[in-house]
């Protein structure tokens, strides 16, 4: 077995294989050794044994030895899988640990038929890389290439991806390159991996001395998920926190490498960014001097919808309470597009050229893990919004020209919260997380007793999906609505049409009308009945929600009602 590690500046490096130490030979900045064995760790100088920064398997946790893993040994059955392009797709975000009672890849596989029958095309999985402890969101990972063992390890994840492909579901994996977690982050002992900190932890050295290998570390990790685990897309967490002053940004370099791999494996490979920059350069093709990513999350769309449905106006929601904010954001993608942001205290963003940039490059959603889990109590929309308003929000998202994304359980208005949780074994770190969380929300007016203890196992249990309630009254109706909307989006080309220059939004008082070819989605978000401002006589009603009959809704919209009509 060949072992190697990048450790510039070291005078001596050994590899401990199955308990026996072996000297490594230096070649430039890399160290090598040929030794037979299974479990291994590296010793730098006279230091303690450390796991491999490029480990593919950590069966005993992030502080323990790595284990040799042979990617070629897995028996894939997805040879006929040709992948899925993002345009026209519908995503479903889930967290493996709380998606099912079992909290593993294998138990998640048991729910894939349900997801496929719902009409979804992409399953977006929150991070599965190794982090300290058993339960967590996954964003505190420290060994990016090793799959979290409590979920099922590398073979378990491959079984999950393989099972998704058998059902026609593409897999999006959430990856985190902007920081490392607070426990088990040993990279800086090997070389100049770190450069400064951001809000979440140490950031990577992407543009300083020694950064060539650090950038290679990121790109190799991304390509490994796509190539070795057959993943179809990566969701890149908080790319605005990547500090890179090079002429060629890491994101563009990654896009070039993924494009080359896509040609080699002969299937679409997609990069989706999460960014707070409101900069369309991320999803602008490289030929037009952009970074060449395929899509990005659009929080402005979420914020505008959230305020319109809930009336909440605190924090970053304040600007979205402006008259016409929802219609404007639906038309223009970014509400803050070189305009004043009161939350930031400055102008923010850049406009999207709706003549040339298609809507499928922006993900639209009512809820996601951040917008639920980073609320003090992790409350979902269904905790404060009526079924009628939930239905209106779902119709707007799924009838929009953007790529829709659903958060697990949203489709049946799950009653459980989704809260922030962690399980760091170190008592001091656990207490720091607990205290920090409570202080953060105390600044926003929450009492400490109101904020769930993130370290308490009960917080994880409260966040598990209650699958038995899908068929209960009040949940069953919402599920059927989502099923119908997803089916209509697949059947009617107008609803998936991403051309923003052909998309019109008409707003009159509390009424919103989305123009989708010959189809009109009319929504009443106000408390009183209104006359639907349709620009023609309805030839057919495709879908509706509310107390009036379908024919009545074509002309008059009761409160919390929508109607999708065909004017042909």
TrEMBL record:
GO biological process assignments: trehalose biosynthetic process
Keyword Transferase: no
Catalytically driven reaction(s): hydrolysis of (1->4)-alpha-D-glucosidic linkage in 4-alpha-D-[(1->4)-alpha-D-glucanosyl]n trehalose to yield trehalose and (1->4)-alpha-D-glucan
Predominant localisation class: cytoplasm
Localization in the cell: Cytoplasm
UniProt cross-references to InterPro entries, sorted A to Z: DUF3459, GH, GH13_cat_dom, Ig-like_fold, Ig_E-set, Trehalose_TreZ, Trehalose_TreZ_E-set_sf
Metabolic or biological pathway: Glycan biosynthesis; trehalose biosynthesis
Domain Glycosyl hydrolase family 13 catalytic residue range list: 93-489
Residues where substrate binds: 235-240, 299-303, 369-374
SUPFAM superfamilies tied to this protein: (Trans)glycosidases, E set domains
Keyword Cytoplasm appears in the UniProt entry: yes
PANTHER family registered for this protein in UniProt: 1,4-ALPHA-GLUCAN-BRANCHING ENZYME, MALTO-OLIGOSYLTREHALOSE TREHALOHYDROLASE
Family: Belongs to the glycosyl hydrolase 13 family.
Name of the protein this chain belongs to: Malto-oligosyltrehalose trehalohydrolase
Lineage of producing organism: Bacteria, Bacillati, Actinomycetota, Actinomycetes, Pseudonocardiales
